[in-house]
Specification:
Helix content is 54%, strand content 4%. The protein is mostly helical.
């Protein structure tokens, strides 16, 4: 090497994108996020600006549980099954006596239960019971489901027990809570739970415009909802429709999913926010929303034959893989998924949320299990 060659900085070389490597890296980051709390729950996020982990987050720890059980089965790494069980035990330990689940992180100043978080942890308890047979988890799930049904208004909406950390009490994306109720209703053969789920989706569809866009569907900006909350709502409507054999629900979710797919950029990313005409309302992308929509498009392809949506899912997965850093020297971001891209974007600015990694893993596992093109 001559003197000039030594003076020219070398561009870092990136390994080719690989779904298996990306999946393993995301799982390993979630393990570090769990270890960072020391309690069994998973840290809500790593803040790269402050260089610190947030407190354990009951809501998202709850729905990480089925992801880790699934990953353990796919990868053969049994340690992740044990991590999922530890998460479920922690969730049961901190569950309120009435069945509800804490709003915010474990170190939140307002210790109150909230609807959305309870629904998300319900997924975890149900999965933990199914994988272990431990009736303690089944009891936690039933108490959570009973609390949710009791809190529901007659029209199907949830107006009480809104999160004190959200700007609005009434939310269409609570259909993801309905999804949890429908799943436990089917699993335990409790018609009351499935009926409550149907009522909520019926209410949510009253918020739908003819083009599929939903009112009351964001944490803060209801005129320009995040793809994150849009995807929450679509997934709930779709899965309740499938569990309840309701074609109207499935058709509505399909309309919405196609509309979001039409906004996908050439690089595979989605706009972070979409307005009522399904037009981009931000230049940055909400990375979690990309992964969630990849799940929805794959679920529709499998359950309804919408195979035209598979390329959109694969393209979204490739985009998220392209911004993940599975070999970063800093273990706190190695394998993590940012809230926004660029990282300074409007959602979870400079943070790596655990739910981004969770949904990314779900999207990749669907792709790998279906045998679609490995990215």
């Amino acid at each position: 090497m001559n003197v000039i060659d030594r003076l020219i900085p070398k561009r870092p070389t990136r390994q080719p994108l690989n779904a298996h490597r990306a999946l393993d890296a995301a799982a390993e980051w979630l393990a570090r996020a769990q270890d960072a709390t020391g309690c069994g729950g998973v840290s809500a996020y790593y803040d790269a600006e402050k260089r610190q982990w947030a407190g354990a987050y009951p809501e998202t720890t709850g729905y990480i549980i089925p992801t880790l059980f699934r990953y353990a089965g796919l990868s053969g790494r049994n340690a992740y099954r044990e991590r999922a069980i530890a998460m479920a035990r922690w969730e049961s330990d901190i569950q309120f006596a009435d069945g509800g689940v804490l709003a915010g992180t474990l170190d939140a100043t307002r210790a109150v239960p909230t609807i959305f978080n309870t629904g998300q942890v319900l997924f975890g308890w149900l999965s933990a019971w199914q994988h272990t047979g431990n009736l303690h988890f089944r009891d936690s799930a039933i108490r959570a489901a009973d609390w949710l049904v009791a809190a529901q208004d007659p029209d199907g909406a949830w107006r009480r027990f809104a999160s004190p950390f959200a700007a609005h009490a009434l939310n269409a994306y609570n259909t993801r809570v309905a999804f949890a109720l429908a799943r436990i209703g089917q699993t335990l053969d409790v018609p009351e739970y499935l009926q409550a789920a149907r009522r909520n989706v019926d209410w949510a569809l009253l918020q739908m415009h003819p083009n599929g866009w939903l009112e009351n569907n964001d944490l803060e900006d209801r005129q320009r909802p995040l793809t994150h909350t849009i995807a929450y709502a679509i997934r709930g409507i779709l899965e309740v429709g499938l569990l309840a054999s309701n074609s109207r629900f499935v058709d509505a979710a399909t309309l919405m999913a196609r509309a979001v797919a039409a906004t996908q950029r050439r690089d595979g990313a989605l706009p972070g926010r979409l307005d009522a005409d399904w037009k981009p309302a931000s230049r940055w992308t909400c990375v979690t929303g990309n992964a969630q929509m990849a799940i929805i498009w794959q679920r529709l392809a499998k359950e309804t034959g919408e195979i035209s949506l598979i390329p959109a899912a694969e393209h979204a997965n490739r985009f998220v893989m392209s911004i993940q850093k599975p070999t970063a020297s800093d273990a706190r971001i190695r394998g993590a998924i940012p809230g926004s891209h660029p990282r300074k974007g409007g959602y979870m600015r400079h943070r790596y949320p655990n739910w981004a990694a969770k949904f990314f893993m779900d999207a990749l596992m669907l792709q790998l299990e279906a045998g679609h093109r490995d990215a």
